[in-house]
Amino acid sequence: MNLRAVVPPPAPSPSRASIGGPPLDSAGAADDFGSVEVISLAGPFEASAEERKLLCLLADGRLLVADGQHLNAHVLSYQARLQKMGRPFQVLYVRIDTVRRLNQSGGLLDRHQEHSMMQVTAKELLSRACQARASDIHIRVRSASTEIHFRIHNDLLPVGGQTREYGERLLATLYGAMTSVSDSSYKPSERQDASIADRDKLPPGLYGVRIATVPTSEGTLMVLRLLYNDAGDNVDLHRLGFAPAHVAVLQQLKEQPIGLNIISGPTGSGKSTTLQRVLQGELLEACGRLHVLTVEDPVEYPIDGAVQTSVTNAGSEEDRARLFAAAISNAMRLDPDTIMIGEVRDRASAQNALRAAMTGHQVWTTVHANSAAAIVDRLLDLGLPASLVADHTVITGLISQRLVKALCPHCKVELARAPGVLAPSVAERVAQVVSDLRQVYVTGPGCPHCAGRGTTGRTVLAEIIVPDEQFFRHIRQGDKSAAVAHWLQELGGRTIVDHAIEKVAAGLIDPRMAEQVVGRLMLRPGQSARRLQVVGDGDAV
């Protein structure tokens, strides 16, 4: 059937209303709606109580409107909403008692039964993603279909498709029946954020789910970030891929009783996992004698022994920023030894994080920045004064990290046995930065150990700056290049590119994948090609 919005016909004439017998619908057929589901009772196309007195929308696209109500304001408003949402429909005029009966019966399925079935379907989807170790689920509701993708090891892979109606009901169920927000009304035409924290609604191994939705030109996109609890008692940062030198510096920062330590990186770079293991390690080393307090939006990973607080249910971004800043301010009055702030995202939260570090607390947080040195630029961009930001007694650690795919040790291939696999320019750069090419490996064909992917999870690439007075003197003078040069030459700094070269030289990562994450593999001035000291390869994450 070619479904489209149609211009309502004129209202039935008085002579028709006076004729005996049941009135016919506008298609000229008797009532044949009993086998079709009503979708205007709940979900994205839910009609208001007043609208349900006059109309109902069927799953096959027919919009049943009570005779004589084609100009009613409630009917016109509902039709306009369907058009705005891009939902095709065909108007049919029926007796008002037909509308009432269908709205009472719900059509094909009992509404509660259907809702429960969709919850089971949603949980099964989460279980499949969990078994595949996906980091995200993308559900794209398009004009005529629904597409589902899993992000696995940073690759977005299609895993199935469904009808548009299926996707709309799935999104409505995920948001409306499974999240822990106070306003659980799913609104396809608005941007919405929520989380699933009820463990009864999650498969084993999954700690929580963060949900974000956005309307698109064709329908709606929902992205679910899956939060795993993999740490347990394992707080070894080597296993994430940090080099021994990185682990030593992070241990130094953990033992420093005051100061602000900031981890930067793009979304999905493992910042929250690093924070979890750092704080978990602090608590284990202190045998529970520390009061660690977190302020998160929402709580992402469990930290045994910490007091974790969540800022949720804000009605807008402005409300969220205000509540988040107030929560940080309140945390300072709760006698913490260490405060963890989920993310510095605006001036108010940055100011409060800095204030907490200045008043005798150890503070850990994250921010979006391109490098360790760029964290300072980000804080200045948020409106913090340079005199406070550029103080090595307040900001004690600047950390930047990325995740890169780790080669499967069972099927990786020596570069010498794969001539021509690298583009000439890449091969030339690898030859310049690694002296022993016999240790360089590239992605293999796949095997049972890696499920045919050639890679086994991801590993960390990082750089850490422990700033001193001279570093920040250059920053205050506006000479960032001099500050970075001081870090590299006088403080023994290693860049994230250096870390990538080390892992390429150790045969742990493919040079092509490394360049996709950190850019071109190039030596710094004065640096010579050599097999760098093997870094923590660890367990891929």
TrEMBL record:
Keywords assigned by UniProt, alphabetized: ATP-binding, Nucleotide-binding
Classification via InterPro entries: Intein_N, P-loop_NTPase, T2SS/T4SS_dom
Bacterial type II secretion system protein E domain: residues covered: 332-346
Biological process (GO), any one: intein-mediated protein splicing
Keyword Methyltransferase part of the UniProt annotation: no
Location of the region described as Disordered in the Swiss-Prot/TrEMBL record: 1-24
Nucleotide-binding found in the keyword field: yes
Annotated Low complexity bias: 14-23
Gene Ontology terms, MF aspect: ATP binding; ATP hydrolysis activity
Gene Ontology CC: one annotated term: plasma membrane
Annotated family: Belongs to the GSP E family.
Protein name listed in UniProt: Secretion system protein E
Organism lineage: Bacteria, Pseudomonadati, Pseudomonadota, Betaproteobacteria, Burkholderiales
